[in-house]
Design goal:
The chain is an alpha+beta fold. It contains 31 helices and 33 strands. Helix 15 runs antiparallel to helix 16 and helix 17 (about 545-555) runs parallel beside helix 18. The longest helix has 20 residues, at about 1005-1025. The radius of gyration is 32 Å and the shape is globular. GO terms for molecular function: SNARE binding; zinc ion binding. It comes from Babesia bigemina. This is Protein transport protein Sec24C.
């Protein structure tokens, strides 16, 4: 009898029995003994390269985490899909159930000990289901080369073991590079500001020879995972009474802000600027204030807050108030305030005069009145909500109206002096407008209810943290719905299609003040919106008109904030409607639409308003989706896309995004500048908001909002000789309104670079992740702005860089080896992935969204341009053919190359691309395991594939959710990565191929051939330089 299951010593070869050789015998074969390769083997950076690959066909079968080569016949194609679309099990599961493998005698390990733990321990033998192994296939055929596939350098993330607490021994790329506090607190953490070089050459000519670009990536308001940025009130410490003379300590020539490096060579009141090297004297008040602040030790800190490399200064009033008089002092302002208060008190009887006109006004051009009169005479083609408006609006009774305070619009009497504008600008806390599509298509998808339910979860989290939020909700279909609680009653105000702008004059009636304790009021407000029925004929959308309403609400209230708009379809009517929208990857738009958007953008820049766009399409793409994200790009908002929106799986992403928006510190009304030490200058900036309002010069920008997930890249250059300087500095300064308390602050980050004469140290000090961010932005910027392809020039630049390293640092190495610096060993893999994504010839939607995001992406996000792929389970090694193991199935989390040759039909894989997590499983995964994960009544077909969710009621489901949370923990301080479940039968299974970025795609070579080609180019360039 042929044994159907067996044990082998050491890691078994994946797919060893996938296909037989032509002369293979059908007789039973003894168990195969394979030498185990320890997973802790150190990867060599030197990669042996051969110019001519061997001609061979077949694939490589290997266990996840091990790379052992076995030549075989080309992989068989996948089995045909089942004819019955409502089948309960995949067709491939039938032979496995019909012939269950024999269970080998072995000690049952605890379910908490995963396959990965047993693999690494090496103390046990491993089970192989020989019958299942015969039908398992990989998704890509492997062509063996002479290159050692296992030793190709690629990024690897190590996930904590299942028995470990999250974060104990976990090696996080985000944590190792960005999350650690800088050892020297006199410079800022690399999380806030990182340069491509830690050490810089003395001569600009040397920088040109080594070919490493000099750039700085700034994420000024990154989530403070390693301690808060200290707040210093230097203005109060100096004590200057004249508002027009208040100032921070700055260099009088270059206006650089005080930083610890200015204290290196100080003498009494004399300071030397570390940017322009100009000497200047401090006043006595400034010197005393600085001495007092330097001696202050808050919260047992190692050094005083003012001596940190990252500091928040309270901004002097004259920095943002333009009409201050020269002789205005604090005492005079207080006297003026008291006099104005007494005058306003005397005017109270005038304001309460019963003869004053009392007319309830919501808009300056639209009055609240009987809605039946509004649409009287429109006939059967009148307002689509005519039959629903009666129960939607609760009009207050006359008795209640008499007792409630009336809302009136009065002209300010000329005798009452108005407060100066600057008093309104001192504290400006943000507000939020949530604009939701309520068309019939949105109702069919469940978008409106999903957003409202998500907001309930958001405010539950905000209530737990006592986070105050001022917000309102607007919905739209062919009309705009505004919801007010005037006089304590819930009221719906409807504005049908209007072809002109209007200005809201009573915005306070539309906003809800959530203070952390009135959760019931918020839920009542959201319930009232949910009760408004959507008519069946509300199929048209005036989404862009609703966007202009939301922006106008904040602008007229003189309040910075964010407008979050949810689209389910492109706008088809009203202001800014899309004329014949199409699915396109073109970044151009119609002139009329651009003029409309530019008007909104101008209003956003004047009032400090950002726009976040959520595209919730019924299918993979929404027509006109690129144009709909134009405003968010220009205001530094986020553009979030949900292809084939599903409320159950996509709602967590909405919740997390809104929680980050409401609870994390954001910066509004930002004015920022990058300063560099004298030999360095800013040559270019890479960011999406390139318009005349944003750019003051190459180093100075204005932007409505900077979020914790926003970064800006500056390309730098250096020409002059550095004389007598051990370090050069880069300083980023941003004046902004804090979303926490509305105060005007100045955030300053100061970073340093050591001047060096050692080329080897300069190259080995380069930051790979910052370089990847720079190259990704350069490619995306050129493609979006001018449609040019920068891949060739970037590859030539990298080849020249590696050639210089070989000539200057490793001249005696063999020619057949590609020599990579240890710190740059992952650069080729990242570039090969970027070249496939930012390809003008094959710009698919998933890549398009990543490109638009790249221009705002921080370093910790762009480093995932090379996707991380983890093998969680292989059924061919699962001995539980029947039944459920005690404690449920455990899951390994072993990193495998992002190639289709590593994806097997019996596997469960988790893929992380820095934007989302994709859970993929093939047709040969144990059906009992899938039922444990997704429910006993599981159906798999194209209809149900997009509605799967992991059950938390089973031990197996909780084990998988725990692994997913550990992968998410690698992105500490970054955006939330929502989970997309992608079964083999999904209509969107093409996404799996798009994520396998080591394979050939779009005319770009696979990773292995990419390295070979790069090696050839380095050899040619080296020969040319020698000649």
């Amino acid at each position: 009898m042929n044994p159907q299951g067996s044990r082998v010593d050491g890691p078994p070869p994946m797919g060893a029995a996938d296909a037989k050789s032509p002369g293979a015998s059908d007789n039973p074969q003894p168990p195969q003994v394979i030498r185990k390769i320890p997973t802790s083997e150190v990867m060599s950076v030197r990669v042996a390269m051969q110019d001519v690959p061997t001609a061979a066909v077949g694939g490589v079968g290997k266990h996840p985490g091990h790379h052992q080569h076995h030549v075989r016949k080309p992989a068989a194609p996948p089995p045909p899909p089942a004819k019955d679309q409502n089948t309960v099990a995949p067709p491939s599961g039938e032979p496995v159930k019909a012939n269950p493998p024999e269970m080998v005698t072995r000690r049952r390990t605890s379910s908490d000990v995963s396959m990965a733990s047993r693999l690494r321990s090496g103390s046990e033998s491993y089970y192989i289901d020989r019958e299942l192994e015969k039908v398992v296939f990989p998704y890509g055929a492997h062509t063996p080369k002479k290159t050692d596939y296992a030793k190709l350098p690629r990024p690897v993330s190590n996930i904590a073991e299942v028995n470990d607490e999250i974060g104990v021994d976990q090696i996080s790329p985000m944590k190792s590079f960005l999350g650690q506090q800088a050892a020297d607190v006199s410079v800022c953490s690399e999380r806030f500001l990182s340069t491509t070089l830690r050490e810089i050459p003395l001569f600009g000519e040397t920088l040109g020879r080594i070919k490493i670009p000099l750039a700085a990536v700034v994420q000024p308001f990154a989530e403070e995972v390693d301690g808060k940025v200290p707040l210093v009130d230097l203005v109060s410490a100096i004590g200057e009474e004249s508002l027009s003379k208040q100032n921070l300590i700055r260099c009088p020539r270059c206006q650089a802000y005080f930083n610890p490096a200015m204290e290196d060579d100080y003498r009494l009141n004399y300071r030397l600027c570390n940017f322009c090297y100009n000497g200047f004297m401090l006043s006595e008040a400034e010197s005393n204030a600085l001495t007092a602040l330097k001696g202050r030790d808050l919260d047992n800190a190692r050094v005083a807050p003012i001596m940190h490399g990252s500091v928040d200064f309270v901004a002097p009033l004259r920095y943002y108030v333009r009409d201050l008089g020269e002789d205005v002092t604090i005492a005079k302002q207080l006297t003026s305030l008291l006099s104005r208060a007494s005058e306003l008190t005397s005017m109270i009887p005038l304001l309460n005069n019963p003869m004053s006109p009392k007319k309830d006004v919501v808009y300056s051009t639209y009055d609240v009145k009987d809605l039946s009169q509004q649409f009287e005479g429109m006939g059967p083609t009148g307002h689509p909500h005519h039959e629903h408006l009666g129960g939607a609006a609760d009009e207050p009774s006359s008795e209640a109206a008499a007792g409630a305070p009336a809302v009136s619009v009065l002209q300010t009497p000329a005798s009452v002096p108005s407060a100066p504008q600057w008093k309104k600008d001192i504290v400006r806390k943000p507000a939020y407008v949530i604009v939701v599509d309520a068309t019939a298509n949105s109702a069919k998808m469940g978008l409106r209810n999903a957003v409202l339910q998500s907001m309930r979860s958001v405010f539950e989290e905000c209530a737990a943290s006592r986070t105050p939020v001022k917000f309102c909700v607007i919905t739209f279909d062919s009309v705009v719905h505004l919801y007010s609680r005037r006089r304590g009653f819930f009221q719906v105000n409807v504005v049908y299609e209007v072809w002109d702008h209007f200005s809201p004059s009573c915005a306070d009636e539309l906003f809800i003040e959530f203070d952390g304790t009135n959760l019931e009021d918020v839920n009542s407000y959201l319930d009232g919106i949910s009760r408004l029925e959507v008519p069946a004929n509300a199929s048209s959308s005036c989404g862009n008109f609703a966007l202009s309403v939301g922006v106008s609400l904040l602008a007229e209230a003189n309040t910075p904030g964010t407008v979050c708009i949810f689209y389910s379809q492109p706008p088809e009517m009203g202001l800014g409607y899309c004329h014949n929208p199409t699915v396109s990857s073109d970044f151009s738009m119609e002139e009329s639409l651009k003029m409309f958007y530019d008007g909104i953008i101008q209003q956003c820049y004047e009032s400090g308003i950002a726009v976040d766009v959520y595209l919730c399409a019924s299918f993979e793409r929404m027509p006109g989706d690129v144009c709909l994200q134009y405003v968010s790009q220009q205001t530094a908002g986020i553009g979030c896309s949900f292809p084939a929106f599903e409320a159950v799986s996509d709602a967590p992403k909405i919740v997390k995004n809104l929680v980050r928006l409401f609870s994390l510190p954001h910066a509004y009304n930002c004015e920022l500048k990058l300063r560099c030490s004298k030999p360095i200058e800013v040559e270019e900036s890479y960011c999406p908001f390139h318009n005349t309002r944003a750019f003051i010069d190459k180093a100075t920008l204005r932007v409505p909002r900077l979020s914790p997930d926003t970064a800006i890249c500056f390309a730098l250059g250096m020409d002059d000789l550095i004389r007598d300087r051990e370090r050069l500095f880069v300083q980023f300064a941003c004046m902004y309104n804090s979303s926490v308390d509305g105060r005007k602050l100045v955030r300053v980050h100061t970073q340093s670079m050591k001047a060096s004469t050692r080329v080897n140290a300069i190259i080995k000090g380069a930051r790979c992740d910052t370089l990847v961010n720079y190259y990704a932005r350069k490619m995306a910027y050129n493609m979006i702005r001018s449609g040019t392809d920068a891949r060739k020039s970037i590859k030539e630049e990298v080849v020249a860089m590696l050639c210089s390293y070989r000539q200057l640092c490793a001249p005696s190495t063999p020619e057949n080896q590609l020599i990579l610096p240890e710190n740059l060993q992952n650069l080729p893999a990242a570039l090969n992935a970027l070249f496939k994504m930012y390809n003008p010839g094959e710009l698919v939607y998933d890549y398009l969204q990543k490109m638009l995001r790249t221009l705002l992406a921080p370093t910790g996000e762009s480093k995932y341009s090379y996707t991380r792929c983890y093998c969680l389970h292989r059924s061919v090694y699962d001995e539980y053919a029947e039944g459920v193991p005690e404690g449920g199935w455990g899951f390994a989390c072993l990193a495998v190359p992002s190639s289709a040759t590593e994806i097997y039909s019996d596997g469960l894989y988790l893929i992380d691309d820095g934007h989302k997590l994709v859970l993929y499983f093939g047709p040969h995964v144990r059906w009992a395991l899938l039922q444990e994960l997704f429910g006993k009544d599981l159906l798999l077909n194209e209809t149900t594939a997009n509605t799967l969710s992991i059950s938390s009621e089973t031990e197996t489901g909780r084990n998988l959710l725990d692994v997913i949370s550990r992968v998410r923990a690698l992105h500490v301080g970054g955006q939330f990565l929502h989970l997309k479940i992608l079964p083999y039968c999904s209509r969107y299974r093409r996404l799996l191929k798009l994520l396998m970025l080591e394979d050939e795609a779009g005319g770009e070579a696979n990773y292995e051939d990419f390295l070979v080609t790069m090696h050839r180019q380095i050899k040619l360039l080296q020969s040319y330089r020698v000649a």
